[in-house]
Write a structure and sequence with these properties.
It contains two helices and 23 strands. It folds into two domains: 81 residues, Immunoglobulin-like; 160 residues, Galactose-binding lectin (Jelly Rolls). The strands form six sheets. Strands 11, 12, 14, 15, 18, 21 and 23 form a seven-stranded antiparallel β-sheet that branches. With 284 residues, it is mainly beta.
């Protein structure tokens, strides 16, 4: 019996050693990294904010880093499994998420198809989309001016989905204007585009109830004297509201809808006011 006992003890010790070695040599817990998921269906609009998510299964805490390769910007944190991304006005738009877990780094890429809108070019055909959530359509430009030529009172909102027009008013300003043009604003050799097939200009704004804004358009032959016809719009609510202006009113006052250069302008008089502008489009 003593001999058997002496023989069994070493065997047990060897077996325990094997178990310990096997345990130490086990591979790390399995890490599963999926593909980037987008909650909204494509195609995506310029300026649209989409939620991107990268699913990761791991016992260790993963570290995330989101990056935009083709423009656009993130809203909020870029170091979590989900991120809010503002789609740029170009296609495709690629987004990369880097994941570091268990000492290893991997990347996943998502390619977003963007439904870009061309605002029309020189002697071209005007397109319906002018501004979507604060983002201009391709081929358009924007500027602002005032009686003192000081400017600086138009800026994007913090979330980038609209523009804040904080017009100072009188004194010293007697007028101020924001304008969206075919191409970048210019004083010479101005281009034009044909918007005659549309019937209505739609402008989404918000501001203090009762504030007055003049909304206009201008063809490429009309001088920069402020004499073109403008429709007076009274802000009816403190929240967002879309105001409709019939294009026939401009045509009746001599504006050539087949040759529009300024496709939308907001003009202020002496009263100080802050108005927010989000969307502009044409409708048949």
């Amino acid at each position: 019996m003593f001999k058997v006992t002496r023989l069994e003890l070493p065997v047990v010790r060897v077996l325990l050693g094997v178990i310990a070695v096997a345990s130490a040599g086990c591979p790390p817990p399995t890490v599963k990294i999926g593909e980037i998921q987008v909650r909204d269906p494509p195609p995506f609009k310029p300026g649209q904010v989409v939620v991107l998510t990268l699913p990761v299964e791991s016992r260790d805490q993963p570290q995330f880093k989101w990056t935009a390769l083709d423009g656009g910007e993130f809203s909020g944190s870029t170091e979590t499994s989900s991120a809010k991304f503002k789609v740029p006005n170009q296609t495709p738009a690629r987004v990369v998420c880097s994941v570091t877990v268990g000492g290893m780094k991997q990347e996943r890429t998502a390619t977003l198809k963007v439904d870009t809108q061309d605002g029309g070019g020189r002697d071209g055909v005007g397109m319906p989309e002018v501004m979507s959530k604060g983002v201009l359509a391709n081929g358009l430009g924007m500027g602002h001016d005032d009686s003192e030529h000081r400017r600086g009172w138009v800026n994007p909102t913090p979330d980038g989905t609209a523009h804040a027009l904080a017009y100072p008013g009188y004194p010293p300003y007697t007028w101020g204007a924001l304008f969206v043009t075919i191409g970048e604003p210019t004083d010479t050799d101005r281009p034009g585009a044909d918007y005659s097939r549309f019937t209505t200009l739609l402008v989404e704004m918000k501001g203090p109830q009762g504030a007055v804004v003049e909304v206009g358009v201008k063809d490429r032959t009309q001088p920069n004297r402020g004499q073109e016809y403008k429709e007076k719009v009274v802000i009816t609510t403190n929240g967002w509201h879309t105001y409709s202006i019939p294009l026939r009113k401009f045509a009746e006052h001599g504006t050539k809808l087949k040759e529009l250069y300024v496709v939308c302008e907001l003009v202020f008089a002496r009263a100080p006011v802050t108005v927010y502008l989000k969307n502009i489009r044409y409708e048949r």
